[in-house]
Design goal:
The complex is a heterodimer of chains A (453) and B (89).
Chain A: H1 4-16, E1 21-28, H2 38-52, H3 56-67, E2 71-78, H4 81-84, H5 91-108, E3 112-119, H6 126-141, E4 145-153, E5 157-159, H7 160-176, E6 188-192, E7 213-219, H8 222-230, H9 237-266, E8 270-274, E9 276-277, H10 287-293, H11 304-320, E10 331-332, H12 340-347, H13 353-359, E11 367-373, H14 378-395, E12 399-406, E13 414-416, E14 423-425, H15 435-439, E15 443-444
Parallel strand pairs in A: 1-2, 2-3, 3-4, 4-6, 7-8, 9-10, 11-12
Antiparallel strand pairs in A: 1-7, 4-5, 5-15, 6-12, 13-14
Chain B: E1 2-9, H1 15-25, E2 29-38, E3 41-49, H2 57-71, E4 73-79, H3 81-87
Antiparallel strand pairs in B: 1-3, 1-4, 2-3
Helix pairs in contact in B: 1-2
Classes of the chains: A alpha/beta (453), B alpha+beta (89).
Chain lengths: 453, 89
């Protein structure tokens, strides 16, 4: 029999410390729908998704009730759309497909569907180029579709033509959704070393190495880690790391249980549990507050990178034994607009874009949900992407950029997205130009350590 | 199915009676029960078996939740797996 203290610990984590399952994401391969006719492919895609995911939301809600743990998001990731409609060179065909994805998301009841994506780290097919060209329109006319483009990898280097293009696409997406402060950009991620089984949005897609259908689960719980660290105030870093590990283990066990049960009830293979600390704008659910609990006056000050490195590593060490399959992005997320502590740190000037870039060297992803001034040039955005991709390429890790150049907004303004996406203070970018650098084009070759065979 | 019911809140007369009455009415068998006052709060933990209950889990959960609201307490019912998986390897 379980003892009372253990039971009460779990209850407290859920009731007071925001422990939840962040997402149950069903990956659906759309390879069987592939073709070149926009209309026919869209219909097939809609039919496939609504059939395979018809019980996803219902099952997840049943699990929520029975286990008594909130499952915040139910989502779907699909095969990169550029592969599904690879035969088409008409952007309108792709927009049609985006609308079909959006409609399928509404029908199945999921809040986001990811996979309006292209993998162009070495070069672009006609389908890739057409999809990328259609992104601004697709994100403006749909609500729930998320898009991602992989522009680099440790094995292939960085496709600088794609980097230059994505700067322009991000600007165009912001412009097309300017009535909502460039909200379209919140649904668009540029990756280096994108992973095939990521359950988190906006970067989720179902890779070509995945089965027909798969269940991936992302856990969360920054509030639980913060509360655990409050109990070891002043202790040395060995104790801090140990405390994070133990907490991460418990959090991940929840994810493993939900993943196993969802997989069994839906009769869909269990893919991975993503060992993540994903913040929300709710007070007490912040990664920044964990770093501050370690002794930093404000997140972003000197010492932040070291604190984040320890946290990220301890989360993985604690989580890895708790789950039979670990994957996805696995680590701490630092999305600025989705984290109350990050927002406060950016507003007080403690946290800069440069510090965030340094932090991305040691955490799970990259420059995430950061608002920059509306007049930031496409070339500057491309250069930011290039820096981030370089960190990913050299360090053999996933990095990403999700920037919102909010039209008409200036440094100091605040952009409100609402819900889990929160609100972001507009942060300054470096005023010196990188135009000639971005204009060179071509590829940055893969690093020497990519030659591992 | 085995589930854990937790009742937390201000102590008053009749909490155990009210909770057990609802369980009996719904053919839910109590397997184990422990009750204590933790940090001034009434805390009761029950292990129950819901096999013979005709209602589905959500209905039981809502019924107990409503009783909690009436008594000014927090009453939850959760599958025991969530506790086992978190605290037992």
């Amino acid at each position: 029999m379980l003892n009372s203290l253990e039971i009460m610990e779990t209850i407290k984590m859920i009731a007071e410390e925001h422990l939840d399952i962040r997402t149950v994401t069903m990956g659906i391969s759309l390879m069987s729908c592939a073709g070149s006719d926009g209309k026919a492919v869209s219909q097939k895609v809609y039919d496939t998704i609504t059939k395979r995911a018809e019980n996803l939301v219902k099952t997840a809600e049943e699990l929520e009730t029975e286990l008594g743990i909130p499952i915040i998001n139910k989502r779907i990731s699909v095969t990169p759309a550029s592969l599904v409609l690879g035969g088409s060179s008409n952007p309108d065909d792709f927009v049609l497909l985006a609308k079909a994805l959006d409609k399928a998301a509404t029908t199945t009841g999921v809040n986001f569907i990811g996979g309006y994506s292209a993998l162009v780290h070495k070069g672009m097919t006609t389908g890739d180029a057409t999809l990328i060209a259609s992104i601004p329109e697709a994100l403006a006319v749909t609500e729930r579709v998320c898009s991602s483009v992989n522009v680099g990898s440790t094995r292939a280097g960085i496709n600088m033509d794609a980097v230059a293009l994505m700067g322009r696409i991000i600007k165009e997406t912001a412009e097309k959704t300017k009535d909502k402060d460039g909200f379209g950009c919140a649904k668009l991620v540029v990756f280096c070393n994108a992973v095939e089984d990521n359950p988190f949005m906006a970067g989720a897609f179902c890779g070509v190495g995945e089965p027909d259908t798969v269940i991936n689960v992302g856990v969360s719980g920054p509030g639980v880690v913060k509360c655990a660290l409050e109990q070891v105030k002043g202790a040395d870093f060995g104790v801090v790391a140990d405390t994070v590990k133990k907490t991460a283990f418990k959090i991940t066990r929840m994810g493993q249980l939900v993943a196993q049960e969802a997989s069994r009830r839906l009769n869909v293979p269990f893919g991975i549990v993503d060992l993540s600390l994903a913040p929300t704008p709710a007070v007490g659910d912040s990664v920044a507050y964990i770093l501050e609990e370690m002794g930093l006056e404000r997140c972003g000050t000197h010492g932040t990178t070291a604190a984040l490195a320890l946290l990220n590593d301890a989360v993985k060490k604690g989580g890895v034994m708790a789950s039979s399959y670990v994957g996805g992005l696995s680590g701490a997320f630092i999305p600025v607009s989705e984290d109350a502590g990050m927002i406060a740190a950016a507003q007080t000037g403690a946290l800069s874009l440069d510090k965030l870039e340094a932090m991305t060297c040691v955490c799970s992803v990259g420059l995430d949900m950061i608002c920059v001034p509306g007049d930031t040039s496409a070339q500057t955005i491309s250069a930011i992407i290039a820096d981030e991709a370089a960190i990913g390429m050299i360090n053999n890790k996933t990095t990403a950029v999700r920037l919102i150049p909010a039209p008409g907004k200036k440094v100091g303004d605040v952009v409100e997205f609402g819900g889990l996406l929160g609100s972001g203070p507009v942060m300054p970018v470096n005023g010196f130009k990188s135009d000639d650098f971005v204009a060179r084009g071509g590829r940055i070759p893969a690093p020497i350590h990519s030659l591992r065979n | 199915m085995r589930a854990v019911i937790t009742v937390i809140g201000q102590d008053k007369i009749g909490i155990i009676y009210e909770v057990s009455r609802i369980l009996a009415e719904n053919s839910i068998n109590i397997l184990d029960i422990s009750q204590t006052i933790m940090q001034d709060m009434f805390t009761m933990i029950m292990l129950v078996n819901t096999e013979k209950c005709s209602k589905n889990f959500k209905e039981i959960s809502d019924t107990l939740g409503a009783l909690g609201d009436k008594l000014g307490l927090s009453i939850r019912i959760q599958h025991e797996d969530i506790f086992n998986s978190m605290h037992r390897i």
